[in-house]
Amino acid sequence: MYVRDSVNHKNKVLEVDGSNQLAVKDAIAQSSLTNIDSNCANISPDQATATNQSAANSSLATIATASSSQATAANQATANTSLASIATNSANISADQATATLQSAANVSLNNIDTALAGVLQVSSAAPSRSSGSLASAASKSANDLSSSVDGNAQRKCAVFGTCSINSGSVKVHISHDNVNFYEDNNAQYYANYSNGHIAGHFDLNARYFKIEFMDTATYTLEYAMCD
């Protein structure tokens, strides 16, 4: 069988191999295969991943299927497209993919963190600053008498405690920011225990100064203690 040479306009014998397969020489396919070979030569063995291998196997299976058929112009065009895609994907494999070197560096960092956390955490803090004083010492008080003012500038909390000679007695806290104008704190009134006359309570020193109002005519012994 003869075919016409479209370039030289001569008749040539159409040749097949021993299996009656048409011998085909495709410059486009050869170019794509050359690109694949060049790109794959630069890929680190550590860059291979199960995902990449699966994609490669799929593409190779497609090539194998196409190769089992006799060469036609349509088959060649499909093969050329697949080969070009493989060549492009091979060229785009990122160096940021996991490598033994990167994994080794990560392991060193993790070991350092593990070593640091394995130690004993040392915590230190200064003891709280405290101050205390007396507001009344077995003193006879008339109802609504006030104690001297106390400056709580360096403190945050205060407790008052003591005794009252009558079991129904109570005391109330007055607060001030300027040590001149004092205001009753109705949330800070403390009553004596009916069994023994003990009084105790605590409050936050949101204002700088405070006084104690003795709410009943009785004998009071009262102290305060503040801490930061």
Key terms:
4 helices; 228 residues; alpha+beta; Jelly Rolls
> What spatial form do the alpha-carbon principal axes imply?
rod-shaped
Strand tally: 11
Q: What is the number of domains?
A: 2
Structural class: alpha+beta
Uncertain segments are none
**Can you name the CATH architecture of the largest domain?**
Sandwich
The helix content is: 25-40%
Number of helices: 4
Q: Sketch the topology as an H/E string, one letter per element.
A: EEHHHHEEEEEEEEE
Terminal CA distance: 109 Å
**Biggest pleated-sheet summary:** 5 strands, antiparallel
Integer average pLDDT:
80
At CATH level 3, the topology of the largest domain is: Jelly Rolls
- Spatial extent as radius of gyration: 48 Å
- What is the CATH class of the largest domain? Mainly Beta
Beta-strand residue percentage: 25-35%
Give a description of the structure.
By secondary structure, the protein is of the alpha+beta class. It has two domains: 2-91, no CATH class; 130-227, Jelly Rolls, CATH 2.60.120.40. 31% of the residues lie in helices and 30% in strands. The chain has four helices and eleven strands, in the order ββααααβββββββββ. The chain has helices spanning 27-41, 50-67, 73-91, 100-117, and strands spanning 2-4, 11-13, 130-141, 145-146, 150-151, 157-164, 170-176, 183-191, 198-204, 209-214, 218-227. The strands form three sheets. Strands 4, 5, 7, 8 and 10 form a five-stranded antiparallel sheet that branches. A hairpin with a 6-residue loop joins strand 7 (170-176) and strand 8 (183-191). Helix 1 runs parallel beside helix 3 (73-91) and helix 2 packs antiparallel against helix 3.
